[in-house]
Known about the structure:
Number of helices: 5
Order of helices and strands: HEEHHEHEEH
Strand order of the largest sheet: 2-1-3-4-5
Distance between the termini: 37 Å
Largest sheet: 5 strands, mixed
Mean pLDDT: 97
Structural class: alpha/beta
Amino acid sequence: xxxxxxxxxxxxxxxxxxxxxxxxxxxxVVDSAGKIIAEAYNQSAHSGDATAHAEILxxxxxxxxxxxxxxxxxxxxxxxxxxxxxxxAISFARIKNLYFGATDEKGGAVISGVKFYDSPTCHHKPxxxxxxxxxxxxxxxxxxxxxxx
Length: 149
């Protein structure tokens, strides 16, 4: 599998979120062998938990599966640029590479907003690449919020 394949899986998860009336964000954690070890989509609305973002849930599942708190050799693919909370969780989990689709100029914290990884207090900065399948990732979000208005 390649970067686009993993992002397409994150997009499929985002579409599952739409079907459950959740903000459409999907996340996938991949180990060093290229195997998907955890995945999730946003579940804040239905769980009543403001922290139930796709990235957080995927990290929790990956840590549980690997029985560790550090995901040193793992990569994360997420359909939307992570917010500050998720960027911090990615850092604390020591994710090696972060790949995301659409940029989030309003709530993003990686290349937008606070640029969390550029902070001197950030202990671990993953390698970051944005813009993978960005048009499709952005369209899912725009269509979701357009339907809400």
